[in-house]
Design goal:
By secondary structure, the chain is of the alpha+beta class. It is about 35% helix and about 25% strand. Helix 5 packs antiparallel against helix 8.
């Protein structure tokens, strides 16, 4: 439970963090809240030779009105999402779900950019950003680029971020007045979700699933069924179609498939899709 030896660099700006990434390449890892990276290091599942600390970059912590969307700095902490009046008004599902992440200690240290960059399929907030149809802004030596959330998650703990890139901003559409729901089943409070569902009804319905595959993912079969006029119950029956949920100590594959059907139906009914 002791990490391998590593060097430490504290970045004073996003540009300096990028320069460190360019200097050390694959051997460097960014450290923000640390709740995902440090446990992996203690288990020797990750052994970076250099940690680049970006946790004090205040210019990447904000929640701003961007016109047709809300722009959120990558280092914005979960607690700030949870208590943001702007998010409660314009993107309430994001504020609500942030309040369900871990415990107060985790929410006061963990960052939205950190959980998105980590790409854990059991995380709550990546699924919400997916259901909203969000966009991720990353910066690297070749400049800035935007990546749709649907194109960001590539594999287990693998994203579209290149080793020399930094996630700087998350943009989510405003959905004031839209129907929404976040359903999460876990055995104990503060546990990772065994299965979770984010649903947003805003003209069309976006649905994303937690812990139903190797990445956070959209429930494409459910969305297609709804667009064809299916009821919530009939659409929810397609929740696990084409998916490969994991089996672990908490749940079998069959149990996760059943949970997904139940939770998707509840989410659709709460969001107002009947």
């Amino acid at each position: 439970m002791i990490p391998a030896k590593f060097d430490y660099r504290r970045a004073s700006s996003a540009e300096e963090a990028l320069s460190f990434l360019g200097e050390f390449g694959d051997e460097a890892k960014l450290l923000a809240g640390g709740h995902s990276l440090l446990p992996l290091m203690k288990l020797r599942l990750a052994s970076p030779s250099v940690l680049v600390d970006i946790g004090r970059l205040s210019d990447l912590s904000y929640i701003n009105d961007g016109g047709d969307h809300i722009a959120i700095g990558a280092l914005t902490r979960h607690r700030d999402l949870e208590t943001s009046d702007l998010l409660k008004q314009q993107v309430p599902i994001l504020a609500h779900t942030a309040g369900l992440v871990g415990d107060p200690q985790v929410r006061h240290r963990g960052t939205l950019g950190g959980t998105i960059s980590h790409g854990d399929p059991a995380s709550d907030l990546p699924a919400v950003v997916l259901a909203l149809g969000g966009t991720l802004v990353v910066k690297g030596p070749k400049g800035e680029r935007e990546i749709a959330a649907t194109d960001f998650f590539k594999g287990f703990l693998e994203t579209a971020l290149q080793p020399d890139e930094l996630l700087t901003e998350i943009r989510v559409p405003k959905v004031a007045g839209a129907g929404w729901s976040y359903q999460k089943f876990n055995r104990r409070a503060q546990d990772w979700a065994i299965v979770g569902v984010a649903a947003v009804r805003n003209g069309t319905t976006g649905i994303a699933l937690v812990n139903m595959g190797s990445t956070p993912l959209r429930a494409a079969a459910v969305e297609q069924a709804l667009s064809g006029g299916a009821s919530a119950a009939d659409a929810a029956a397609q929740a696990s179609e084409g998916l490969d949920p994991p089996a672990d100590l908490n749940a079998s594959v069959e149990y996760r498939r059943h949970l997904a059907t139940v939770l998707v139906r509840r989410a659709l009914e709460e969001a107002g899709t009947t």
